[in-house]
Write a structure and sequence with these properties.
This protein is α/β, with parallel strands linked by helices. 39% of the residues lie in helices and 16% in strands.
């Protein structure tokens, strides 16, 4: 069986070094062949703040992926009509290569709320989970959710170096005209500045 494929979903509004750091650590700790940065098209639950549009977020994610090793941007959700449900994304990836194992990467806060997602049992059937601890979310809460879904043995914890960068803080910096260097990959910073995104 080929090495597993990691799937890191998000608005990537914008993508930043924290996303690439997570992809790197997940790849190394879980032995992944590569990690897909899966840009959300239409989010099912909430609007994306200060959204420059799905196509622009995908463009920024592609630029960011070029700065990472064994990282690739995917437009699967952006190119699909309707809400970007994770279970459907995993189904499509599985149909594309049925023999490949999938590992869905997420923060503990997301993992704790997994029962409220569309088709959560299908998600844990299609993919193992790589979970990053998050301040404010107890891992016992995550374990309880996974046990309820019958997936207690289908998750691994990813230990991450502390990285306080967030897409929200980068949008705030961009709006204030503050420098973005070292917070986002250089090509992403160039596009944000040149096009006045988030201003």
């Amino acid at each position: 069986m080929a090495a597993a494929l990691g799937v890191l979903g998000g608005a990537f509004n914008p993508p930043h070094v924290g996303h690439l750091l997570l992809a790197q650590e997940a790849g190394w700790q879980l032995g992944l062949a590569r990690v897909l940065l899966m840009t959300t098209g239409v989010p099912p639950h909430k609007e994306i703040a200060d959204d420059p549009g799905a196509e622009k977020r995908l463009e920024l994610t592609r630029l960011a992926a070029e700065a990472g090793e064994d990282v690739e941007a995917s437009g699967l959700e952006v190119e699909r009509d309707g809400p970007s449900y994770t279970y459907r994304t995993l189904e499509l990836l599985s149909e594309d290569d049925p023999g490949r194992e999938l590992v869905l990467l997420m923060g503990a806060d997301m993992a704790a709320s997994l029962q409220s997602w569309r088709e959560p049992e299908r998600i844990v059937e299609l993919a193992r989970l790589g979970i990053v601890p998050r301040a404010g979310t107890e891992m016992d809460e995550v374990r309880g959710t996974l046990e309820h879904l019958g997936a207690a043995d289908r998750a691994e914890i990813i230990q991450m170096p502390v990285c306080g960068v967030s897409s929200t803080s980068i949008r705030e910096r961009a709006a204030a005209g503050r420098p973005l260097r070292h917070l986002v990959p250089e090509p992403v910073a160039r596009v944000i500045t040149a096009e006045g995104l988030y201003r």
